[in-house]
## 1
Amino acid sequence: MFGTALSQLRYGMAVLRNRRIRPQDLERIARDLVATLAEFGEPGEDSALLPGQSGRSAQIDPEVRRTVTRRSLRATARIAVRHTAYYHRVFAELGLDPDELDETGYARVPVTPKKALRSMPTAFVSTAAVPALMALTTGTSGAPTAVWYSRAELDTTIALSTISAALGLGLRPRHTLAYAGCSRATLPLLNAAESATRVGASFVQFGTIDPAIALDRLAAPLGLPGKSPRITHLTASASYLATLVERAERDGWRASDFGLESIGVGGEVLSGPLCARAEAAFGAPVSTSYLMTETLPSGATPCTAGHLHHTREFGHLEVLDPITWEPTAPGATGMIVHTPYVPYRDCTLLLRYATGDLVRLPADEPDCELAHTPATSAVLGRWNGPLSVHLPTRALLDLIEAEPEVPLPARYALTGDPETGVRLHLVVRALPAPGLLGRLEDRATAAGLPLTAIVLYDDRADLPAATPVRADLREHTFESVPTAGIRTGSGR
Ligand SMILES: [Zn+2]
């Protein structure tokens, strides 16, 4: 594996010097990792040193870490100022010099609001890059955001996804991955298909189809040589997973009807109760990760202590107060503000990008297996004014989705404000629902949720306007599915 060693060395030197990462080096590392898996069945001992893995490589000297961070921030800002209309203007107006920025001085760079990127995406595209693919965010919270990617960025992202599929997800050639994300989300789809098949696994695109059809396809025998008998891995958004759980519970599917070994969820808040119900319904562990189109390949993975641990290699993480943009204190809630670094991103360049995602900082120093990388809570929800900090999506879903009398995905709305009182409006299966309201009120009080009333509905049409979820992006198919009857026994 001399070639890999050389590629890794070159990669390591490029990171330290903030030189351009050669996609072919990352591709070579990914290819050799796959070859190692094919030959020995397991990754080599040095896999913790591979790009994007939070192994020993992350435990470097704090002084060296600061130097690398300063160098990366300066290099990213320098290129953004030189080559994008937006940052050229911002730095000129404030008289900022990218070459004088350090971690403290970086706080003088204004936070980039999401609406700036949404309203003028090309003002963030580097004049030195060749745009190749426009990735659109799902935009359930409004108009989608366009993020241009260069071919080199795609190659880098795919190579890193391949390493992550092999090491993080544990994907092997006998596996088959079904992707039940929106078919129009080109970038995640491309990444999932490329990384799975480069590992040697097979790939099936479901899209967000009728959940009854998706369950039939998950349970159907594949009959492929060298492959597990049925689909082993599923990737979906939390709300689409909720529709699958709802349908599986309703139609009497059993976990043994499926061959799933792992379910990956991203893009939306996954509540504790939904996670538990999905694991019971499908008999497979559910895991989450944090990735977003704007800041790839930066991301975060959960640890066993329940934190979300963020990569440092590909970008700079800040957690800031969503109103003052001052750093969030330990134990408090703030917004993820991220700067993706230039060697990995060269087309759409962002400095201090306000992601809108709320997290809590741990009150104490984490003591877990990933303690050497920055930790936050899991994403609590999206910033939507001060109420979203006191009543975040996660707290509401933890309350609601634990109740089997609430159809999934949960449909709810909040009205009022903290001064006049906040009311939670919620759709349930049927009314009256004896005991449900009292139970919800008790649990809301125990969780410290500032709600003045909970109102139940048995008709969704009566619910005040609710936020759409990704499962609402239903893709139609010509397949006809029998919708009546209770399923028993194994799937067809
Ligand atoms: Zn942790």
Note: The domain at 12-153+291-379 is CATH 3.40.50.12780 (Rossmann fold).
## 2
Amino acid sequence: MEFKVSGDACKDAYWFLFCNDELLVAENAGFINTPWICGSKMPNFTPAGVQYIGSLDGHQCYVAKLGSKNVPAGFTFKELRQLYGQVADEYFWFAARAFHIMHWLRNNEFCGRCGSGMQASAEELAVECAHCRQIVYPRISPAVIVAVIREDKILLARSARFPAVYSVIAGFVEPGETFEDCINRELQEEVGITVTNIKYFGNQPWPFPDSLMVAFTAQYAQGNITIDNKEIIEAGWFSARELPSIPPKVSIARQLIDWFAKLKKPQ
Ligand SMILES: [Zn+2]
């Protein structure tokens, strides 16, 4: 999966270089200029696993890994989520694409069917087994996320994974399920309620590591909140004036909660 970087492909390229899941950025007096490096100014890095990931503003873009965090002055590493709001949205989401692809490549260095090494496809964003020719595309895992409204309140829950914030219910779609099936199953399993009037709200790629979040709103139908005490450790109904600690603005979870707050807050 090595890619020789030379000539013009290198000259004006944007680079998304990761080390241990953190992105290399240029930083000047605490101000982050860009989440990438132009090839023409690129210091003497030796990126590994280089993959072309498309173009942005007419510049060729590549993702690659760095083996060390030993970088020159003026550069630093940042967690991707820390960059939201510090760089333009289109660059943040392109970096998110790079992060997703980097993870996928790392998990597919060898063929899952025969164990041979995988090679990057010359024609499309895929890797192919040199031995059995299996082709593997980047994995995208759809997940639903749903704001359940009961009169002037919203259902929010704390999960064991992120106990500091309350959020709307989310879960991965299983084989054979529609989005609606998944919403009904997740709500039954995690909080023991049923809903009606499920409506599409929006969607958002969420590359941590490979989700596509598909957001919905729904109305409470019946059932008392009964948490599973595994994934969910606390759940309740909250009014717009009594919202607890909620997720950061980058997430579609927050967009759902903000939508509710705007809808229900007394003028
Ligand atoms: Zn194979």
Note: The chain is about 20% helix and 40% strand.
## 3
Amino acid sequence: MIEEWTEQVKNQVNTIEKLAKYINVSDDEKEAINTLKTKWGTSPYFASLMDKDDPDCPIRKQVIPSLKEQVNEYGMKNYLVWKENRATEEIRPDSIARQYHDRVAFTVVQVCGIYCRHCFRKELVVDQNLQLNFDVEEGLAWIAEHSEIRDVLITGGDPLLLSDEKLGYLIAKLREMPHIEMIRIGSRLPIVLPHRITDGLKKAIGGYHRIPVWINTQCNHPKEITEETAKAVYELMSCGINVGNQAVLLKGINDDVDTFRELHQKLLRIRIRPYYVFYCEPAPGMDHFRTPVEKGAELIRDALRGHTTGLAQPMYVLATNIGKIPLMPDYYIVDKNKKEYTLRNYKGEFTKIPNMPE
Ligand code: SF4
């Protein structure tokens, strides 16, 4: 039986003609699609969430190429090589990216359910001017030999586009390694192609096991959350998989207080735990999506901290070549002396608590 998700992948919306079935494609969008030689496309499901007439629709801006991608004043050349420490002396397969001693990112596929215009791996998956060899067996062998690795992040591209059989094999192989304690999967599919969460997938990666599987998805705007998303997340949780969100802070998409708060509240309503908000990384051709660095911390202060449920508080981080650097709002401790701390809350009210000597 042909599953809905494979039909969606087969019918990816990646030409102006196909896109015109969902929206009135603007002249600028047409020109960008015709001018830029990059990969683009979306699942028909995600395209159906686009606003028909508004080119500023947050779904449209994430998916449809823009001429602004030709501007690159602040993006770093060879960003991914720098970010993923690919030029270091340690010999690793192309599929293994390493920033920490005990965990690695394992890239297993180069295709995606949608091609995000703000992707930090744009050079690899969208522009495709970085060629790497993703040999899964070679990556598995490297992980098996490195007993210090306790946590593997399976990434891409979008790993959930692999067949149930391939995913099942990958997870089983990792679970056989005595040093592996947890497996994470980074995938946008619960958001952009929720039909992928099938019984077959649940069987391949879910179920009770000593080594848990966590999925971190990427949802950047409340408009991306539908009844289908809610059901897909519930299905994942019902087979023992926790789902977290890693949003990207995007100028003109989610960088205002109301949208930012609604996004995080809505995620919790469908059982997704907000985990990170990433600063939009300085990969090339994404200047138009990037805010000042402090913006994310300001949004946590003004939209979330104290303003809504504690579970809706992600950590705001800058992902760099030396790991993630958290940047949280810094307004709480107003003064500190030998006797007491003076503290400020989200409303600007003050209080004092005793300073405990060591
Ligand atoms: S789904 Fe992930 S890897 Fe693919 S383009 Fe989007 S952000 Fe990049």
Note: The chain has two domains: 4-327, 331-358.
## 4
Amino acid sequence: MIIKQAKYLTSVVEKDKLLSDNVSEFAFVGRSNVGKSSLINNLTNKKNLAKTSSNPGLTKMINYFDINDGEFRFVDLPGYGYHKAGKKNEQMWAKLIEEYLLNSECLKTVFFLLDCRILPTELDKIMLKFLIQTGRNFMIIATKADKLSKSKQYLAKKQIAQTLGISEEAIILHSSQTNQGRENILSYIENTI
Ligand SMILES: Nc1nc2c(ncn2[C@@H]2O[C@H](COP(=O)(O)OP(=O)(O)OP(=O)(O)O)[C@@H](O)[C@H]2O)c(=O)[nH]1
Ligand SMILES: [Mg+2]
């Protein structure tokens, strides 16, 4: 898969405004600060397409990005588990994520991101359960792989799989710094659209 073009399309905060056409969407879900926006920038090879920050809670809306002039879309979702956002905001974003995952007519696959250095949290487990309930296709991406040595990466993958009760093969290690895993994810997209 070659991404020749990527541009910001629109942002949405209400379920009635979700895009509904025949364009396939790939959505990025995960805890705040896990690296969702960075992964979109890495895959599209554009540094500032999706806004990233070391301060959690940056992405507050559903942000749509058009790829290859209408071939497919990336959907950057707000992160969960950012307590400083306040309970009201947390609930609002959680509802928005849930509504998107339940209602999007274009959603093909959810990329579910976990930090490879942190064992899945209770909220991650809830998200996994929810994803399974929706019946959506999903793929688990362990982010920030550059922060671990190869042997620690292997161990991390094993521990994540054990904690979630899933197979290790369901997890792709990725790094926005070294491009590790990038080609795997792009091939997956190519085979899915
Ligand atoms: N070393 C390293 N840092 C990363 C990687 N991916 C993301 N980061 C850093 O992690 C921080 C958070 O990244 P974001 O992409 O903004 O995370 P997000 O999941 O979009 O966060 P929210 O929008 O708050 O939900 C930033 O400081 C990034 O530079 C990676 O692969 N390696
Ligand atoms: Mg973000």
Note: The chain has one domain: 6-192.
